[in-house]
Amino acid sequence: MRTILVTGGAGFIGSCFARQWIHEETSRLVVFDKLTYAGNVDSLRSIADDSRFSFQEGDVADHELVSRLLTDYEVTSVVHLAAESHVDRSIDGPAEFVQTNVVGTSILLATVYQYWLGLPEAVQRAFRFLHVSTDEVYGSLGPDGKFTETSPYAPNSPYAASKAAADHFVRAYHATYGLPTLITNCSNNYGPYQFPEKLIPLMILNAIDGKPLPVYGDGGNVRDWLHVEDHCRALRTVLDRGVPGQVYNIGGDCERTNLEVVRAICSAVDDLRPDLRHCPCASLINFVQDRPGHDRRYAIDSSKIRRELGWRPSHVFETGLRSTVQWYLANSDWVDRVSSGVYRRQRLGTGR
After folding, report:
1. DSSP secondary structure of 71-95
2. Beta 28-33 vs 3-7: how paired, if at all?
3. Would residue 159 show up in a list of annotated catalytic residues for this protein?
4. In 3-state terms, what secondary structure has residue 241?
5. What pLDDT score was predicted for residue 343?
6. d(CA 321, CA 299)
7. Whole domain around residue 137: which residue ranges?
8. Assign residue 35 a region: left if phi > 0, alpha if psi is -120 to 50, beta otherwise?
9. Which one of the listed residues 84, 136, 149, 167 is annotated catalytic?
10. Element (H or E) spanning 256, and its range?
């Protein structure tokens, strides 16, 4: 039976991929996660009792453990999502991003390569290593144009630099050793189960609680928003039909300024919770000092994956955002559990 190993599978995107896979596919899936602050097994609760699902706690840099998992479960593909992913945290502490995203990825590649060499030829040909990356590796755009798969890398944050380095290692393992790798670079994800340090869940929860809504700079930074469920379906499409050695950009074709996003969240919260004493929530918007090295605009050209593999997003941002607000309103227990550590929605990434 086909078996997929998902690193970082208890995180935001990884847990969505796992839930979607178990609900819609017939083969086995193994989640491998270090369970740092942003990884939580609560996000996997709905599939925990399925016989095709397995969970293993651990670090991608643990060669012996990963090697044993690959062999014991007879893994036929790896989806690599394990990463430190928050730009503000990378500004405060870049070393951890180098260790996880660069060193961890390089060790994982070496482990997977050794396992792949021992597979029968037919299994080798079908094997895939899918590395999930970000549009932030490309740097910042001006008012026009979009990132394509051939855009030059120009990372501007420690997080983006660490992901760029990881991308290059994945590419090198295909070019040098023939490992059948795939790389995807996606735009900003949103949806349920996202740890509340990221823009959309942070603003939703602060708006509900009547706390300030901190908007960096003038709020004019532009991002291309992609629903996490659309992203995970794109990953499955690339895993099934992507050409080894190729890169596929995944975007929602949905550019919004940060201020537009925050105002849309405020509107949804006002509509869904008119009983809140601090309505309208837009009165909570507070412009704060900009993030160091804050990229002005990202936009993804996803025409390659649409043209060659037939994928396209299905969620409309306005309805997707509203359903996301509804999910956080209905799942305060999950929010309380994942926020029980050191993070308390404080400002990160000041560079000090």
Report:
1. HHTT--EEEE------HHHHHH-HH
2. parallel
3. yes
4. helix
5. 38
6. 19
7. 3-194+227-254+297-315
8. left
9. 136
10. strand 255-257
Residue whose entry in the numeric block shows the structure tokens 């895993």: 239
In a domain, 340, yes or no: no
**Is 336 assigned a catalytic role?**
no
Using CA atoms, how far apart are residues 69 and 77, in angstroms rounded to an integer?
Answer: 12
Residue 335: its H or E element: helix 332-338
Q: Residue 288: inside a domain, yes or no?
A: no
Considering the candidates 88, 135, 149, 253, report the single residue annotated as catalytic: 135
Catalytic residue among 73, 138, 159, 190: 159
Cβ burial 263-300 (10 Å sphere, 16+ → b, else e): bbbbbbbbeeeeeeeebebeebbeeeeebeebbebbbb
- For residue 179, what pLDDT is reported? 98
| Per-residue pLDDT tens over the stretch 6-58 | 999 999 999 999 999 999 999 999 999 999 888 889 999 999 999 999 999 99
pTM as predicted: 0.94
Q: What is the pLDDT, as a whole number, of residue 146?
A: 97
Residues sharing a CB contact under 8 Å with residue 76, sequence separation 6 or more, in sequence order: 2, 3, 4, 123, 126, 127
Distance CA 293, CA 350 (A): 10
Q: How many domains does the chain have?
A: 1
Q: Which residues of 1-14 are buried (b: 16+ CB within 10 A; e: fewer)?
A: eebbbbbbbbbbbb
135 C-beta neighbours (distance < 10 Å), count = 26
Query: Can you name the residues that pair with 53 across neighbouring β-strands?
Result: 29
Exposure class string for 228-252: b at 16+ Cβ within 10 A, else e? bbbbbbbbbbbbeebeeebbbbbbb
Q: Which residues of the chain fall short of a pLDDT of 70?
A: 340-352
Catalytic annotation present for 173: no
Inside any domain, residue 91 = yes
Amino acid in position 341: G
Gap between the Cα atoms of 206 and 213, Å rounded: 6
Q: Is residue 178 part of a domain?
A: yes
CATH number for the domain that contains residue 111: 3.40.50.720
User: For the chain, how big is the Rg over CA atoms in Å?
Assistant: 20
Residues in the chain: 352
Helix (H, G, I), strand (E, B) or coil at 6: strand
